[in-house]
């Protein structure tokens, strides 16, 4: 058997040699190695200028963010919104990154890097020990040169003071904006507006769909209209899932007034989950259940999209549909109720 092999694997082997120490001595703090900035005043001044420049760049980034916010406002187009958002993101990143990089470079090159050991005590330290600790803090501040580096201190304070304006000004300026919640009650669906495939915009005929077919649907629109920022915003509320069932499987396809909202087994429901607004698109053909992938709310497409499982507490709003003279599917009207999750002016 090897000398290093444990003959009893289930038991811990302990050292019994008389040469093993009972405790290890504290090696203490290693000797301090001075940096170039500690021994060369010219190097210290050079690093001070570098840190000041970094903080100045941060200030310029904050100012540029405010200029971008007021000068490059979204113009209602997708391109304009992207440009405004990109400029705000880049300038805010420069401002915040400058603060971080400047603080790190200041700490590494100019602030004191001496190591100090303070013994921890369960109870409060005696007054003389606290006095020594306060003196250590004062010595550290003196070593960092904060008091005599006025320009550097001013640049750091300016950067810290300007950065909050990059998000405070947009927040304050938005006060009193558009809070018309009635916009949530309606979408761009309207009477006789035809259904189109998402995203191509090709119109849908009832004859295109077989039993079990599923289609992602948007309102009919021109290609130019579909490229507009307003369309993209409104489309988010108007997306629809279209399913063709066997008419005999439908248990509910009528409005409270008794109007038929489906056509030959074809039903259309909002894709926006009534729980927190995730897109519901996982359809089980055999059970006619529609599943939300976020929190597993399940809706019965054969029974008015009622909730059969999960946290959602309202059915998916149904889009009433019919066909025109050419056989294309079209809306009878907008949704009868607001789409998506509840909000502050709606109890359910």
From TrEMBL:
Chain intervals for the UniProt region annotation (Disordered): 1-43
Rieske domain mapped to chain residues: 237-330
CDD domains: Rieske
Keywords associated with the record: 2Fe-2S, Cell membrane, Disulfide bond, Electron transport, Iron, Iron-sulfur, Membrane, Metal-binding, Oxidoreductase, Respiratory chain, Transmembrane, Transmembrane helix, Transport
PANTHER family the UniProt entry points to: CYTOCHROME B-C1 COMPLEX SUBUNIT RIESKE, MITOCHONDRIAL (PTHR10134)
General function of this protein: Iron-sulfur subunit of the cytochrome bc1 complex, an essential component of the respiratory electron transport chain required for ATP synthesis. The bc1 complex catalyzes the oxidation of menaquinol and the reduction of cytochrome c in the respiratory chain. The bc1 complex operates through a Q-cycle mechanism that couples electron transfer to generation of the proton gradient that drives ATP synthesis.
Protein's name according to its UniProt entry: Cytochrome bc1 complex Rieske iron-sulfur subunit
């Amino acid at each position: 058997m090897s000398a290093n092999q444990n003959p009893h694997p289930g038991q811990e082997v302990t050292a019994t040699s008389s040469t093993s120490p009972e405790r290890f001595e504290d090696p203490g703090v290693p000797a301090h190695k001075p940096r170039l900035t500690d021994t060369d005043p010219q190097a210290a001044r050079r690093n001070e200028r570098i840190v000041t420049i970094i903080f100045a760049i941060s200030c310029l980034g904050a100012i540029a963010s405010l200029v971008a916010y007021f000068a490059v406002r979204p113009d209602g187009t997708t391109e304009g919104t992207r440009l405004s958002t990109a400029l705000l993101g880049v300038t805010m990143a420069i401002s915040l990154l400058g603060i971080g990089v400047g603080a790190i470079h200041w700490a590494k090159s100019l602030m004191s890097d001496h190591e100090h050991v303070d013994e921890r005590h369960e109870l409060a330290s005696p007054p003389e020990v606290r006095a020594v600790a306060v003196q250590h803090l004062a010595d550290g501040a003196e070593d960092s040169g904060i008091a005599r580096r006025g320009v550097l201190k001013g640049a750091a304070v300016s950067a810290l003071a300007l950065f909050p304006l990059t998000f405070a000004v947009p927040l304050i300026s938005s006060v009193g904006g558009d809070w018309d919640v009635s916009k949530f009650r309606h979408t761009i669906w309207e009477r006789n507006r035809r259904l189109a495939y998402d995203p191509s915009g090709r119109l849908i005929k009832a004859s295109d769909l077989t039993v079990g077919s599923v289609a992602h649907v948007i309102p009919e629109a021109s290609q130019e209209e579909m490229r507009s920022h307003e369309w993209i915003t409104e489309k988010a509320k108007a997306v629809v899932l279209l399913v063709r069932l066997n008419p005999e499987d439908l248990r509910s396809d009528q409005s409270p007034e008794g109007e038929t909202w489906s056509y030959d087994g074809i039903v259309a429901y909002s894709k926006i989950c009534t729980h927190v607004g995730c897109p519901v698109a996982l359809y089980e053909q055999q059970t006619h259940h529609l599943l939300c992938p976020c929190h597993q709310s399940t809706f019965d497409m054969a029974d008015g999209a009622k909730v059969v499982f999960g946290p959602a507490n309202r059915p998916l709003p149904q889009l009433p549909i019919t066909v025109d003279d050419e056989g294309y599917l079209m809306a009878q009207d907008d949704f009868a109720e607001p789409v998506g999750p509840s909000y502050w002016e709606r109890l359910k």
